[in-house]
Predict the 3D structure of the following.
Amino acid sequence: MRIDLQFKGRHVIVFGGTTGINFGIADAFARQGADVSVVSRRRENVDNAVAALTGHGHRVAGFCADVRDFEAVGQAMAEAVAKFGAVDVMVSGAAGNFFAQARHMSANGFKAVVDIDLLGTFHVMRQAYEHLRKPGASVINITAPQSTIPMRYQSHACAAKAGVDQLTRVLALEWGLDGIRINAISPGPIDGTEGVRRLMAQSDEELAQATSMVPLKRLGTLDDIANLTLFLASPYASYISGAVIPCDGGGALESVKPVLEATGRLAEAQARKV
Ligand code: NAP
Ligand code: COA
């Protein structure tokens, strides 16, 4: 059976799409023939991503914006729409994270993560609304296991990602009237990414331990997340909305919490020495 996901010539915009998981998603859509816009803060990341995506020979554009800046997000969105037209698929995946116990965390540290993950997601969705194709657009937010599993040293990310899940559900209710579907993906530990390298497993031993916590006994790949994103954005998922879907080898059942907390304990002990 030949499956046509029907992304040729569609406009896909990925916020935070210049590295890691979100870049993998942008790359997958480019390979399907979509017109892809990527947005993040740093010019170097944007230029590198655009160069890599252009390798596929499709139309690609990159824009610099911090998702904490509502006006800048609107500007990037408007420029992308001026280039490639109404948005068929929007992915919101920018995030920030570090380890700290709440009692050692400054108010600004907590705010930085909530601002990026939660307010940033609202900014992106709110600015996209007028540009989303109605009916037919698909919005996909990238959440995390922290949204449902409480983890020490992660008060900011747990609070922010729980908010992302609820924003996904509430806007699925509100925007369903326009024929817009809104879902979220909750990745497990994805090999080679910032989230695993810096936050979970800095040594081979920690990596092996993290892997052993996953029921499928392997870390995820960029393709694992990209494939689910392609499916959710495609007509094959046309009756799925308001869902928060784990893509984690069953990790949410077992939880990588002990590994993450062990790394957090170490990181915080080291941070307090300086
Ligand atoms: P990553 O490589 O650090 O990607 C983050 C992206 O967001 C980068 O493109 C970064 O580019 C951009 N970004 C960060 N802050 C931003 C801001 N304020 N405004 C605009 N763009 C910003 O991270 P990742 O590990 O692949 O994670 C990607 C997503 O997956 C996140 O939502 C994360 O919570 C989720 N997740 C990851 C894992 C994992 O195993 N890696 C597991 C569960 C969930 P600039 O620096 O240029 O802004
Ligand atoms: N421990 C404790 N507090 C920390 C911290 C750490 N490791 N890193 C940053 N903070 C605090 C800062 O001290 C500051 O608070 P203060 O003003 O009270 O001192 C606050 O967080 C903001 O830091 P700043 O460096 O100005 O923020 P930023 O906007 O440049 O960076 C971060 C945002 C901190 C979230 C940064 O980690 C980031 O941009 N990460 C993006 C990539 C990422 O995390 N990817 C993984 C996704 S899962």
User: Anything to note?
Assistant: The beta strands are 11-15, 35-40, 60-64, 89-92, 138-142, 181-187, 244-247. Residues 95-98, 100, 105-106, 108-109, 112-113, 194-195, 271 surround coenzyme A (ligand 2) (CB under 6 Å). The radius of gyration is 18 Å.
